[in-house]
Description:
CATH architecture of the largest domain: 3-Layer(aba) Sandwich
CATH class of the largest domain: Alpha Beta
Strand order of the largest sheet: 2-8-7-6-5-3-4
Largest sheet: 7 strands, mixed
Structural class: alpha/beta
CATH superfamily of the largest domain: Type I PLP-dependent aspartate aminotransferase-like (Major domain)
Number of strands: 16
Amino acid sequence: MKTIIEPFRIKSVEPIHFTSAGQRRQLLQEAAYNPFLLKARDVIIDLLTDSGTGAMSSAQWAGIMNGDESYAGSDSFFRFEEAVRNLTAMPYIIPVHQGRAAEKILFTVKGGKGKYVLSNTLFDTTRANIEFSGATGVDLLCPEGHDPAVAAPFKGNIDLDALTAFIGQHDPADISMVILTVTNNSGGGQPVSMENIKAARAICNQHHIPFFIDCCRFAENCYFIKHREAGYAHKTVLEIAQELFSYADGCTMSAKKDAFANIGGFLALHDAQLAEECRNLLIITEGFPTYGGLAGRDLDAIAIGLTEIVDEDYLKYRIRSIEYIGEKLESHNIPFLKPTGGHAIYLDAKAFLDHIPAHQYPGQALSCALYLEGGVRGVEIGSVMFGKYDADGKLTPSAMELVRLAIPRRTYTQSHMDYLAEVIIAVYENRSAIKGLKITYETPFLRHFTAKFETV
Length: 456
């Protein structure tokens, strides 16, 4: 059949509260033109993030009832540990309440002033935790990844020449690690090839630099490897994932993505000494090592989700649903990052709103316009999220100005996606009327979460 249907049936539903255009205009003003500050009930289609917003399966809900809430050594932890080890083959499994907690612990131990962390592209919380430790995060995205209009199969790759050059210009001892984000979230949800992963690992081995994976969307990445990279078509997604993890010294994961959980994550490691240091910090900040800030029921939900995510019928539907939106936008010549990635559509706000300069934040303006038009909430990934100020206080803009529309897993149907496309098309047809924004309030770290704006 040509139509790829959702590989699940719906057992429970949550009502959507509908707002009028006039109400949304008032609500957005009250939220200081920052969609993060809107109440969720006032959003019709919520694509702010795919993190923790998916629908859990009947098996996961049943697993929750089996959760062992013992403070130490619960059965839930051992089921969780077994699931993570089966996937990663890493002996030291440290649960945390979400991905950024793993980052906080890891970079508190491995970061510090004068240290560097190299990546294909660091996402916002990863970079913030690196910088908070005093270290410097460096993005080394492959050249094709910088051009939204170029359709290349693995635009999430790290630039191997740039990686080699950076190491040659610095003392390798000052490089805490290389960490690849799979898929590359800030780079458009684009996958990283196995060839690139192996080559990056070889460079790290040559210079005795630890090699890590930020693996919160590992299954989507492995599905792309299966269908785009020579030599993998005959392998299962689980086998590809196990090979991917075999090249890493450790990994961080937000289980709120490719484990279908509403909360949770983990840090997995091969190094016993590093694991001991991380566990000591975990006890101070998260909890005992066998629960790490999570209820036992959450650990069971994650363990089950890690087995469900490698189902290839699900992944086929997941990737196709993103492609479906891209095809609708392409038919109207709407600029977006190509090809479509694994978990989101990324609108190219720089091309979409070419009359708005970077210092007036076109991505934020486009996010607001989508909400005003149809109650759709996305997130800016551009100069609000990643822009810096120079010594004179002038904005150094992000390389790309994007709006990410992240699709929660197993949450919306095709009719919701058709509605989303209609909203984007309507905004594009009236784009000349959209105005830029200026920041009136911001914080030193992760300013996009709480920043306030007004129209220019």
